[in-house]
Design brief:
The protein is of the alpha/beta class. The chain contains 6 helices and 10 strands; from the N terminus they run βαββαββββααββαβα. The protein has a single domain, classed as Spore Coat Polysaccharide Biosynthesis Protein SpsA, Chain A, CATH 3.90.550. Helices cover 32% and strands 21% of the residues.
Length: 247
Amino acid sequence: MNENTLVVGFGYNGDAHQIKTLLPMWEHHQCPVIIMSPWDAPIEKMGGHICMQAGRRAYIGQDSLDRQWLQMREILKINDKDGRPFEWFLFNDSDSLVLTPELPSYLYEDKETVYSNEVNDFRVPGQSWQGLPPWPTDYHAGLPLIAMQPPYFMSRECLKRMVSVASSIEMCPICPFIDWFIVQLTVAAGLKHKPFRTGASCETSTQLGIAVMSQRIRDHGATFIHSVKSESSLSALKKVYASTSTS
């Protein structure tokens, strides 16, 4: 199950409690788990797993993007217990998970595709939003108007090519977020991108968010989940998933 796959959790010491909550959902894939955090906000211990650091703490902006690719570069250096490089990677942020222990076989069929929770960008070139000035007409021209949100799944080939182009990519001042940076990396590396067939990205910090996510799990079989930040939200979604998988 999930052969030659490394599970990586990204976070910082301020959300270590979230990682501790979701850790069993990362461990149930029965793959090695690595915890990646910034140099200046390190997670040094987490459930007996190897903890590594690279980059600086930042939620958005150039430091956050530099940290992301520096951490991705370090991940390429990790080998399995027999000294062999991993060929597949599942990346989770501190608020993402996959409900099923076994990852679907289609993920392993194409070494040039990056999978994620793809979300449409609300910014439409030339149009305004909530009274703000219109977005530039050339906003992200030639690139898909999406965000690529966690989890992420990719091959070693994808990861190598994304890291190789990362230092040449300029931060977008309108959208200085990692979920846009992943789009830029994917396109610049000449890779394909696809959404998970059973993905869902929605906040679960409110009752409305939990209701929306529950509906996605119940009616559409969602299993690649973002975002879950509390034990109560995780328990609610696991209960919904359990009821659908046994019905």
